[in-house]
Amino acid sequence: RKEVEQDPGPFNVPEGATVAFNCTYSNSASQSFFWYRQDCRKEPKLLMSVYSSGNEDGRFTAQLNRASQYISLLIRDSKLSDSATYLCVGGGFKTIFGAGTRLFVKA
Amino acid sequence: NAGVTQTPKFQVLKTGQSMTLQCAQDMNHEYMSWYRQDPGMGLRLIHYSVGAGITDQGEVPNGYNVSRSTTEDFPLRLLSAAPSQTSVYFCASRQTGDRSPLHFGNGTRLTVT
């Protein structure tokens, strides 16, 4: 089993929709997790950090469920500009990324 | 702020050639790492370092060497380039501590013919 696994996608949603991505992890020692956004052929950029049960930043909500070993990212009121690949990763020395989930937001 | 700087941005090599991808950061981060990303795929960890003089292997270390003589620099060496090493390479750094996120360089796009 890979250390981090994500919904494969792609997700195709209309503008204004709510979309959720899940990410499961196997390394229970990780204390923190991160969601990154990556635009085509660009470097990943930090979207949100998740340390405890979760946090919210505007239209984005990230949640952590340690018992089930998964983290989720919820995007409300999707915008065309949200179209990108979303990557999850756990903290720790071997920072292993999930394969990413591609999101397409359509007008 | 420079952050994480990678050079070169683009490189074309012939099979069997060697080269070094440079990575430098000016944030005094102890942790640095190298990833490769193939088309349509996620980031795969090649090597990482938790401080000067300390390196370790990631998921896909074969064909690559690293060293960490200073806190600022973490070069990645391809000893004998192969077409399978055609990829985009990202260098990243972060502060020590589980809660610190990675900061990425802009990437090096390498083609091996």
Keyword list:
heterodimer, A: mainly beta, 51% strand, B: 113 residues, mainly beta, four-stranded antiparallel β-sheet, 0% helix, globular
Describe what this molecule looks like in 3D.
The complex is a heterodimer of chains A (107) and B (113). The mean pLDDT of chain A is 89. Chain A is globular, with a radius of gyration of 13 Å. Chain A is built from no helices and 10 strands. Chain A is mostly beta strands. Chain A has strands spanning 4-6, 11-14, 19-25, 33-38, 45-50, 54-57, 60-65, 70-75, 84-90, 101-106. In chain A, the strands form 2 sheets. Chain A has a 5-stranded antiparallel β-sheet with strand order 1-3-8-7-6, with no helix packed on it. Chain A has a 5-stranded mixed β-sheet with strand order 2-10-9-4-5, with no helix packed on it. The N and C termini of chain A lie far apart (37 Å). Chain B has 113 residues and is mainly β. In chain B, 0% of the residues lie in helices and 50% in strands. In chain B, strands 2, 4, 5, 6, 9, 10 and 11 form a 7-stranded mixed β-sheet that branches. A 4-stranded antiparallel β-sheet of chain B has the order 1-3-8-7, with no helix packed on it. The A-B interface holds A 30-32, 34, 41-46, 49, 51, 87, 89, 91-100 and B 31, 33, 35, 41-45, 48, 50, 56, 58-59, 88, 90, 92, 98-107, 109.
Topology record:
The complex is a heterodimer of chains A (107) and B (113).
Chain A: E1 4-6, E2 11-14, E3 19-25, E4 33-38, E5 45-50, E6 54-57, E7 60-65, E8 70-75, E9 84-90, E10 101-106
Parallel strand pairs in A: 2-10
Antiparallel strand pairs in A: 1-3, 3-8, 4-5, 4-9, 6-7, 7-8, 9-10
Chain B: E1 4-7, E2 10-13, E3 19-25, E4 31-37, E5 43-51, E6 54-57, E7 64-66, E8 76-78, E9 87-94, E10 103-104, E11 108-112
Parallel strand pairs in B: 2-11
Antiparallel strand pairs in B: 1-3, 3-8, 4-5, 4-9, 5-6, 7-8, 9-10, 9-11
Number of strands of chain B: 11
Q: Ends of chain A: how far apart?
A: 37 Å
Shape type of chain B? globular
Largest sheet of chain B: 7 strands, mixed
Instruction: Quote the distance from N terminus to C terminus of chain B.
Output: 35 Å
Radius of gyration of chain A: 13 Å
